[in-house]
Amino acid sequence: QVQLVESGGGLVQAGGSPRLSCAASGRTFSSSTMGWFRQAPGKEREFVAAISWRSGSTYYADSMKGRFTISIDNAKNTVYLQMNSLKPEDTAVYYCAVDWTSKITIATMEAYYDYWGQGTQVTVSS
Description:
Blueprint lengths: L2 E5 L2 E4 L5 E7 L7 E7 L6 E7 L5 E3 L7 E6 L4 E6 L8 E8 L15 E2 L3 E6 L1
Parallel strand pairs: 2-11
Antiparallel strand pairs: 1-3, 3-8, 4-5, 4-9, 5-6, 7-8, 9-10, 9-11
């Protein structure tokens, strides 16, 4: 079935610029929306960014806009989240997810997403 595997997390100093990857497999995603979410301990999961597989259209949470970039490599079936100028408050588990049929143009709410990866921890130190 559908499998999403995140990687690229770890410990990074404030101001660092890691890139997260999400390898997608098990289904055709050409009509899908790919999303990134994050969740800090004890806090609710929040939307980070999303991209339409077909059109490449992107959408970012206000707090991420200008710092984060979401992209897709079609040949690798992989979605990326390039993170720049990280702050300690960016510390969280980062998840990728798939809205398989793009039930809405670009979904920003987790209820629209059908499949989720296991997450990758990003820890930002001062």
